[in-house]
Design brief:
Elements: E1 3-8, E2 13-18, E3 22-23, E4 34-38, E5 45-52, H1 59-73, E6 82-90, E7 102-112, E8 121-132, E9 137-148, H2 168-177, E10 179-180
Antiparallel strand pairs: 1-2, 2-10, 3-4, 4-5, 5-9, 6-7, 7-8, 8-9
Length: 187
């Protein structure tokens, strides 16, 4: 998979993103605090999001806090609808974003529907979290990687087109290369 460095948030950040990724802001309105990319042939997506720093949450629990917040937004909080399978710290030597106090990578699954459909899909969610307390901000990077698509889902059409899917290594490369160029981004 070819990765290319892309500017994010008007160039305030940059990261290596798969060059085949479609910038969703070219297709529809995206909140100002998000950059969203979709795979051209699968139902995979990458989201880089600026969120408020959660000072009440301990560093080792922060990635799980955000994972559960995403599960709540996805209406995936029912028993068995979400599970955290792994949380690991990322050392400063593994990341380019030296301004972060700590960085974490979480892997888990969520049973979610798209567009408020009844049909639910099993999605592996890889989450990277960079904590920036000095800017009252956290950078949340998510890689949504569908595992099982319900035949009734609007995503079912993409099941047969799994050409060159993105990998966890592509996601890790994004996390490793995320770079801050302009701290003014955080206000």
């Amino acid at each position: 998979m070819t990765l290319s460095t892309r500017p994010l948030f008007g160039g305030a950040l940059s990261a290596a993103i798969p060059s085949s990724a479609t910038d969703i802001s070219d297709l529809r309105e995206i909140p100002d605090n998000q950059e969203v990319f979709a795979h051209p042939h699968t139902d995979q997506s990458l989201i880089v999001e600026l969120v408020e720093y959660q000072g009440q949450v301990e560093d080792q629990d922060a990635a799980k806090y955000h994972f559960e917040d995403i599960a709540s937004s996805n209406k995936a909080l029912a028993a068995g609808a979400f599970e955290v399978t792994n949380v690991v710290p990322l050392s400063k030597s593994e990341v380019s974003l030296s301004d972060c106090s700590t960085a974490w990578m979480l892997t888990g699954t969520q049973c979610v529907s798209k567009f408020n459909e009844e049909a639910r899909n099993m999605v592996t969610l890889h989450l990277g979290l960079f904590r920036l307390p000095q800017f009252s901000t956290e950078i949340l990077v998510t890689f949504n990687d569908p595992e099982r698509i319900n035949p009734e889902s609007s995503s079912a059409a993409s099941v047969e087109t799994h050409r060159e899917p993105w990998t966890v290594l592509d996601f890790q490369r994004l996390l490793q290369t995320l770079t801050l160029h302009n701290p003014g981004l955080f206000g």
